[in-house]
Amino acid sequence: MSADAGEAGLRLDSYLPYRLSVASNAVSGLIARAYEDRFGLTVPQWRLLCVLAEDGKLSQVQIVARTVMDKVTVSRAAQGLTKRRLVGRSQNKADGRSHVLALTPEGRGLHAEIAPLALAYEAALIAGLAPDEVTLLKRLLGRLQSAAGQLAGEALPSPSLR
Question: Can you give the residue range of the structural domain that contains 130?
């Protein structure tokens, strides 16, 4: 391929999936360091803690669906939080073969301590955006996530869709 053909095609710095990934990694890395340094939590553990704080008791299958983390990541996060007694595990009454997870009082306390920090990071990240821009950004991210979910079940899109 000639240099001219490459210039007309894919340009990494203007390729939206790449830009989203880089932005996500930058934000996640910043917050992950804070959670790890101050609270000894990984990002998956924080997500699991937060989902349980919001939704109450959930099975690991429900957590996988809610967080879009894979089963192994959820399982490891749950094991780490259970070991620290931040999450309790009990038999799932609806399905005797699985378990449900719920925050312990210690887990609720830790969530209450971390939540203001998470909100402060979010506020700092969006400080340069107008409220209507934040609303638009959230709406567009939701639409992109939905489109990605739809495409995940399909074959590679044709060149006309790219």
Answer: 16-144
